[in-house]
Amino acid sequence: MRHLLRTPSGVIGLALVAVTLVIAAVGPAIWGQEAETVNAAAALQGSSAEHPLGTDHLGRDILARVLAGGQFTVALAFLATAIGAGLGTLLGVLPAVLPRRAGRLVTGAVNALVAFPALLLAMFTAVISGLGAKGAVLGIGIAFAPSIARLTQTLSASVASADYVAAARLLRVPRWRIATRHVLPNIGEPIILNLTAALGSSLVAMSGMSFLGLGVQPPSYDWGRLLFDGFSRIYVDPMVAIGPAIAIVAAGIGFNLLGEALARSVARAPVGGKQAVGKGAAMPSSGEEPVEGAVLSVKDLTVTFPDGVTPVRGLSLTIMPGEIVGLVGESGSGKSMTANAVGGLVAYPGVVTAGHMSLCGEELSTLSEAKRRKLLGTSMAMVFQDPMASLNPALKVGGQLAEVSLVHQGAKRPAAWARAIDRLRQVHIPDPEKRARQHPHEFSGGMRQRAVIAMGLMGTPRLLIADEPTTALDVTVQRQILKLLREVSAEAGAGALFISHDIAVVSELCDRVVVMYAGRVVEELPVADLVDGASHPYTKALLASLPDMETDRDKPLASIPGHQPSPADVGEGCAFASRCALATDRCVERPPLTRYDAAHAVACWHAETRKAEVAIG
Amino acid sequence: MIIEGMTVRFGTFTAVDDVTLEVPPGSIVGLVGESGSGKSTVAKAVCGLVPYTGRVEGLDPRRIQMVFQDPYASLNPRMTVGASVAEGLSVPKARRAAEIERLLSLVSLPTGLAGRYPRELSGGQRQRVAIARALGAEPSLLVADEITSALDVSVQGAVLNLIRSLRAELNLSMLFISHNLAVVRYVSDVVAVMRKGRLVEVGPAEEVVGSPKHDYTRELLEAVPRLGG
Amino acid sequence: MFAVRRLIRFLVSLAVLVVASFAMIHLIPGDPIRAALGMNAPPELVAQRRADLGLDDPIPTQLLAYIKQLLSGEFGTSFISREPVGQIIVDRLPNTLALAALATVFALLVAVPLGMWAGIRTENGRNRGTEIGFTSTTGAAVAVPEFLYSIGLVVVFAVTLGWFPPAGRDGVISYVLPILSLAIGPIAMVARVARVETLRELSTDYIRLARAKRLPASRLYFRHLLPNTLTATLTIGGLLLTGLIAGSLLVEYVFAWPGLGMRMVESITMKDYPVAQAIILVYGGIVLVVNLVVDLLLAKLDPKSTIKEA
């Protein structure tokens, strides 16, 4: 309820529906008498103080008739909706119960009928059952049934294919129990929400039928019939038609807005997007000189969202030309957000700050917008996790590559296409001339990832950012893509930031590893030292929990108790302390990332002693 | 349990092609393969979730249980953990609560979770609940389909340890399906390698990994990323 | 392959429609001729009419005769005016189609840019005000039926302001109010769909990649976004056109538009069954053809949807 009242449309919808229902409940009792009082002397009057909406041909007050007619109107709408819901649910459930063929026939019929406008179906029924409220209600009910049937079918099909229903089947839970415990509760809510809106639609449709003279017949009257009566006088006394029209509009809008607000209030809150380009680049907070000669130099990078969620906390990173740096962490560690921040792709409410952030020696925050676009567009290439989603399905692969040259290098179309084909060849796509003219759906997963990499090579990439580029691929394809990435960065002399949850993959590809935990770097070391030289307890636990081909099968795998704090509630001290066997009182204070030698840095109070142990032992 | 000559067709596409595989009592058979190899279809067919030709013999088909890949889709969001676990139980009502507690502690979950809803649990905890639910039916075969691939590495270790300790404690037979050869090797006694619907190699885990006979197994082994390159 | 299957489905639906329109007359309880001519009609006349229409023949013979008649372009004769129904359709159908087609084009031209604009503006929950305004306005606009828009427009622009003729078909200016009445609801509906589609597409990896390529906004939105939102919009557009054809019934009635809908309402009220039957058949046929064309068009535009269908 509180959710419902949060949006103006929910409040308006609720208010309109409440008024409609109150009028329907008490209308005939209060205004019924007046609505039927014939006064020939006052016939066919326009709007006046005594009769705000005028009178009809028998001198009856139209306002009273509108207020008294609400009950019949709403009742007819409820009846039509009930018929539609009953029939629709039945049709929707039938395919699940009937033998396969008969079921498919029902589904086919429902699909064909859904495409038919409800009004047309209602007219068809009206012809058969003759003029009158009965025929119209039946017609509208029948006309609504196919769409409700379809909704029921889609919903129950999606629930019936859910894993928990499969599990229940395996547990030999009886059919009726699966229906009542698993299927119904999960489809009931959306169906009921839909019926709220359907009530509005049937009220409006019923009024339409009455307005055409095909629905309610005198001496009965509903809002549609009153509109029918008033319509012939519209040129003389518009008010006599406007009264019932407003009643229909208000009720129709009310039920519709309420249904929608209800649907919104039960829908899960949308997960914050991660993709949009943030307007401002890194804003300088405290400057320190960027590292000389680095392709990427970032100092104190922080990403925050308005609700206190801070996925990246003061991260510093340097990547030299030709160097491949692996960024490792579990889900929620902030590694992907780091990639987005470096690529300038942090979503709208997110704010990126950094001491400095420079690409190829150019400080990004001081560049003009146009220069920054060009620099990022040509010097930085990005590869994402899902190759199926990374290419635009509507455009030819070659065109998606060529546009980089068209936009940033001012190349002509033939030259841009020639370069695109050349780049596709460079990533070992066979028959690149033909492939360039194909759409992405004609490519396999590995092939698409190659095309995305080729896209990054259209400019003169100095930095390659690859965010879990092989996670969605098979191991044999992963191997090929890793090889390609190494080859590409070596040829172009570009630096690469390779983000992965898999420390083994990182160790195969990268020169240096940066381990992230709860938004911060906890350790940074050369890959060669990873197995023996890691000194942060988290890094060590991560390494130990990963089974490989030599893991002792008789010993339990290491695992880390507890879980990583979410980006919203990382505390003051060491974020890993609560899961750490070495944690002491000192860990309430956060250990700084301390550099032990040129290549090795650790953020742990206990690493120093461990370092010493290693040196002695 | 033995699968004999199992074939699964979807229209003209043959997903599983004449697979014969034995799961000896009390052992874990690991089925490994890449996407599209048909390994998950074998799991579904064994459980009777897809129609197949061929035979599955040597056990009561009603005593096969399955644990699924996605811990977020395998629990009904509108049922408490306790209610989900209770689904497969055939004990009298009076003993139900005690049985739920026993099952939850069997998978090393605090018994207090019984009243919670799945949305309040982490991925690893949900996967434990799914395992507890399956164990409640006292299965003679447990089919585990990619049960750790949606989990973080640090959590994966704990679930794998659980699987191994359950086998030791309950003498459970298991068909363990994964794309990750290292994971399959760690938990399984026997490893079967699948490719394009066919079994290409079956043997004791150390043997398949140590001295692979089939080219494809070798290719797969070489592709496994290793620490330290 | 898809086209052939779709064509077969179309023919089956058409056959069902023909049989349904035939059955309609026979499903009317009692004697439709008696009902149409009234209780006081002389029994000889009723018998004569029944014989004329072949209503005394066995049902299969009647159905066969009906189909033969349709194939030769004959639709029977009006009970009331004695006009050939075929002529009524030829005279009136173009007026209805003109209205529906113009309204559809107008609705799409306004709604798609509007929805895209709203989507781009409200991405990731920015501009909450725009979002609330857009969703409540369109939510309300969708709920108001065409005939009430037409009454409102007539009262304001024809009766009160006198800018447009209140009824009839007379020159370009007489199209304005009917088209507006038909288009407002669909504009709201399509704009919502276009916004949701836009938001969905904006969150895809390929848009993220296009942004990483630093494409200018115009290229990003028109070349990358538009084609992908069009598929869903076109599907809705098809539904829209068929809905508009039904909506035109009521709008024609309000504006006394000399179209088929107006005539259909009259014929149902006056129990002129041959006319009602033929017009329902024509409307149903149009719906089937529109759906067929939209599906074929979609298959051509979006290669993925064909694959999904198969």
Automatic annotation (TrEMBL), chain A:
<dbReference type="InterPro" id="IPR035906">
    <property type="entry name" value="MetI-like_sf"/>
</dbReference>
<keyword id="KW-0547">Nucleotide-binding</keyword>
<dbReference type="Pfam" id="PF00528">
    <property type="entry name" value="BPD_transp_1"/>
</dbReference>
<keyword id="KW-1133">Transmembrane helix</keyword>
<feature type="domain" description="ABC transmembrane type-1">
    <location>
        <begin position="70"/>
        <end position="259"/>
    </location>
</feature>
<comment type="similarity">
    <text>Belongs to the ABC transporter superfamily.</text>
</comment>
<dbReference type="InterPro" id="IPR050388">
    <property type="entry name" value="ABC_Ni/Peptide_Import"/>
</dbReference>
<comment type="similarity">
    <text>Belongs to the binding-protein-dependent transport system permease family.</text>
</comment>
<keyword id="KW-0813">Transport</keyword>
<dbReference type="InterPro" id="IPR017871">
    <property type="entry name" value="ABC_transporter-like_CS"/>
</dbReference>
<feature type="transmembrane region" description="Helical">
    <location>
        <begin position="234"/>
        <end position="258"/>
    </location>
</feature>
<feature type="domain" description="ABC transporter">
    <location>
        <begin position="296"/>
        <end position="543"/>
    </location>
</feature>
<dbReference type="GO" id="GO:0055085">
    <property type="term" value="P:transmembrane transport"/>
</dbReference>
<dbReference type="GO" id="GO:0015833">
    <property type="term" value="P:peptide transport"/>
</dbReference>
<dbReference type="InterPro" id="IPR003593">
    <property type="entry name" value="AAA+_ATPase"/>
</dbReference>
UniProtKB/TrEMBL annotation, chain B:
<dbReference type="GO" id="GO:0016887">
    <property type="term" value="F:ATP hydrolysis activity"/>
</dbReference>
<dbReference type="InterPro" id="IPR027417">
    <property type="entry name" value="P-loop_NTPase"/>
</dbReference>
<feature type="domain" description="ABC transporter">
    <location>
        <begin position="1"/>
        <end position="221"/>
    </location>
</feature>
<dbReference type="GO" id="GO:0005524">
    <property type="term" value="F:ATP binding"/>
</dbReference>
<dbReference type="GO" id="GO:0055085">
    <property type="term" value="P:transmembrane transport"/>
</dbReference>
<keyword id="KW-0547">Nucleotide-binding</keyword>
<keyword id="KW-0067">ATP-binding</keyword>
<comment type="similarity">
    <text>Belongs to the ABC transporter superfamily.</text>
</comment>
<dbReference type="InterPro" id="IPR003593">
    <property type="entry name" value="AAA+_ATPase"/>
</dbReference>
<dbReference type="Pfam" id="PF00005">
    <property type="entry name" value="ABC_tran"/>
</dbReference>
<dbReference type="InterPro" id="IPR003439">
    <property type="entry name" value="ABC_transporter-like_ATP-bd"/>
</dbReference>
<keyword id="KW-0813">Transport</keyword>
<protein>
    <submittedName>
        <fullName>Peptide/nickel transport system ATP-binding protein</fullName>
    </submittedName>
</protein>
<dbReference type="InterPro" id="IPR017871">
    <property type="entry name" value="ABC_transporter-like_CS"/>
</dbReference>
<dbReference type="InterPro" id="IPR050319">
    <property type="entry name" value="ABC_transp_ATP-bind"/>
</dbReference>
Automatic annotation (TrEMBL), chain C:
<keyword id="KW-0813">Transport</keyword>
<dbReference type="InterPro" id="IPR000515">
    <property type="entry name" value="MetI-like"/>
</dbReference>
<feature type="domain" description="ABC transmembrane type-1">
    <location>
        <begin position="93"/>
        <end position="294"/>
    </location>
</feature>
<feature type="transmembrane region" description="Helical">
    <location>
        <begin position="275"/>
        <end position="298"/>
    </location>
</feature>
<dbReference type="Pfam" id="PF19300">
    <property type="entry name" value="BPD_transp_1_N"/>
</dbReference>
<dbReference type="InterPro" id="IPR035906">
    <property type="entry name" value="MetI-like_sf"/>
</dbReference>
<keyword id="KW-1133">Transmembrane helix</keyword>
<keyword id="KW-0472">Membrane</keyword>
<feature type="transmembrane region" description="Helical">
    <location>
        <begin position="229"/>
        <end position="255"/>
    </location>
</feature>
<comment type="similarity">
    <text>Belongs to the binding-protein-dependent transport system permease family.</text>
</comment>
<feature type="transmembrane region" description="Helical">
    <location>
        <begin position="140"/>
        <end position="163"/>
    </location>
</feature>
<dbReference type="GO" id="GO:0005886">
    <property type="term" value="C:plasma membrane"/>
</dbReference>
<feature type="transmembrane region" description="Helical">
    <location>
        <begin position="7"/>
        <end position="28"/>
    </location>
</feature>
<protein>
    <submittedName>
        <fullName>Peptide/nickel transport system permease protein</fullName>
    </submittedName>
</protein>
<dbReference type="Pfam" id="PF00528">
    <property type="entry name" value="BPD_transp_1"/>
</dbReference>
